[in-house]
Amino acid sequence: SLTAIVITEQPVSVAVPVGHSFSLRCRAEGRTALRYQWFCQRQSVCQQIPGATKEDLPITAQQSQLYTCRVNDLHKNCVFSDWVKVEVHQCVARGLPPQRWHGEPLIVLNPTAQRLEVGRPLQLRCAAMGVPAPSYQWYCNGNLLEHQKRKRLWIAQAQASDSGTYLCCASNSHGQHWSSAVDVLVGEQSSLGLLVASQPGNIPARLAWVALLVGNNRYRHHPSLMAPVRDVFELRLLLEQLSFQVVSLLD
């Protein structure tokens, strides 16, 4: 029966740099001796991995693939482990991560600032390495976004209320790592034109009141802070109500 074999340790997904060596683990218990066979899937093709008949599957990461392990007993019972993803990041092949990296989250793709019209789609991207693969949580103005828990933040039709300072937290059992904070401005075409004028180097001389806000949330010996991101955004709104032209910068 199917209950004759029980998987006691499932393999876990990982996100690693190209060339990184590690092992996927699968453990099972059964009434007889057990046999293991690993499979991989890439581009919708599932293949048995020749010689991969141990509980541990050693891998040197070259390309992103899916893996599963089949466990058989001597009575022709079999079960498959969970499918797991080995996500390989090519962009950090030179010098990253540090040699003493132990699988803690490490951001390798930060979101970029966005300026878009009302009704257009808003998309922000973040990616991190980690063993196990990190989970993601997006924030806007320091507030957790309940339904934005993927690498890609997606809002199909952005509204002015979606404007703010966004950042993403990648976390796993070893810790967490924050992405860069980026400003998103959603508005009518005319107001977006004013935004360009408010950027450093483009401030017109005729504007009498200009406020420069700088929020530092990254310190060498302290964890990333949430308050500066939130404070810069709220203070910017207050100053704009007082007719200031505001330039807000982070880190």
TrEMBL record:
Ig-like domain mapped to chain residues: 3-81, 105-183
PROSITE patterns: IG_LIKE
Key words, A-Z: Disulfide bond, Immunoglobulin domain
Protein's UniProt name: MALT1 protein
Taxonomy, superkingdom: Eukaryota
Database matches in InterPro entries: Caspase-like_dom_sf (IPR029030), Caspase-related_regulators (IPR052039), Ig-like_dom (IPR007110), Ig-like_dom_sf (IPR036179), Ig-like_fold (IPR013783), Ig_sub (IPR003599), Ig_sub2 (IPR003598)
Stored PANTHER family: MUCOSA ASSOCIATED LYMPHOID TISSUE LYMPHOMA TRANSLOCATION PROTEIN 1/PARACASPASE, MUCOSA-ASSOCIATED LYMPHOID TISSUE LYMPHOMA TRANSLOCATION PROTEIN 1-LIKE
Record Gene3D superfamilies: 3.40.50.1460, Immunoglobulins
SUPFAM superfamilies referenced in this protein's UniProt entry, alphabetically: Caspase-like, Immunoglobulin
TM regions (residue ranges): none
